[in-house]
């Protein structure tokens, strides 16, 4: 029996992906074809557009050009379907220590599908509830780990 080549379903596919911030072109025509079922690294020097590309793939930023699909779903037209199928975490297991408290919470809110405004509003509510409103603009790595009331942990829900 003769078999044709095995074609793996693509987990990520992009063509000509572009993102600009003002006059700065952060991502310039990225083409990817990443088969499902593997582990891939996304490497490059600082400023190469890695984080911006990942944020577009996770539907946190809208591409300015080209297109992208994640698990067969268009990241613009089917953003909810993409979010329902992927998870994203920063370089560390939970919070990204280089981001501020509010930046981390807004990121999580956006991943859950909140609008930017709603995510910022809820982040403010959560920071206040945890006694961290005064620390909202500080990097998480500067936090002591103790809540405003002296306890070491609390739970909150989005």
From TrEMBL:
<dbReference type="Pfam" id="PF00005">
    <property type="entry name" value="ABC_tran"/>
</dbReference>
<dbReference type="GO" id="GO:0046677">
    <property type="term" value="P:response to antibiotic"/>
</dbReference>
<keyword id="KW-0547">Nucleotide-binding</keyword>
<dbReference type="GO" id="GO:0005886">
    <property type="term" value="C:plasma membrane"/>
</dbReference>
<dbReference type="InterPro" id="IPR027417">
    <property type="entry name" value="P-loop_NTPase"/>
</dbReference>
<dbReference type="InterPro" id="IPR050763">
    <property type="entry name" value="ABC_transporter_ATP-binding"/>
</dbReference>
<protein>
    <recommendedName>
        <fullName>ABC transporter domain-containing protein</fullName>
    </recommendedName>
</protein>
<dbReference type="GO" id="GO:0016887">
    <property type="term" value="F:ATP hydrolysis activity"/>
</dbReference>
<keyword id="KW-0046">Antibiotic resistance</keyword>
<dbReference type="GO" id="GO:0005524">
    <property type="term" value="F:ATP binding"/>
</dbReference>
<keyword id="KW-0067">ATP-binding</keyword>
<feature type="domain" description="ABC transporter">
    <location>
        <begin position="28"/>
        <end position="145"/>
    </location>
</feature>
<keyword id="KW-0813">Transport</keyword>
<dbReference type="InterPro" id="IPR003439">
    <property type="entry name" value="ABC_transporter-like_ATP-bd"/>
</dbReference>
């Amino acid at each position: 029996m003769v078999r044709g080549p095995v074609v793996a379903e693509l987990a990520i596919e992009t063509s000509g992906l572009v993102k600009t911030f003002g006059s700065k072109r952060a991502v310039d025509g990225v083409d990817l074809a990443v088969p499902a079922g593997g582990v891939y690294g996304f490497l490059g020097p600082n400023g190469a557009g890695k984080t911006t590309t990942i944020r577009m793939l996770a539907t946190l930023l809208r591409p300015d050009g080209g297109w992208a699909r994640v698990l067969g779903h268009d990241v613009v037209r089917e953003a909810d379907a993409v979010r329902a199928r992927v998870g994203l975490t920063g370089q560390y297991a939970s919070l990204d220590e280089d981001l501020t408290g509010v930046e981390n919470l807004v990121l999580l809110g956006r991943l859950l599908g909140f609008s930017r405004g709603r995510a910022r509003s809820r982040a403010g509510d959560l920071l206040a509830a945890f006694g961290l409103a005064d620390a909202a603009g500080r990097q998480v790595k500067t936090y002591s780990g103790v809540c405003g009331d002296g306890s070491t942990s609390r739970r909150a829900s989005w």
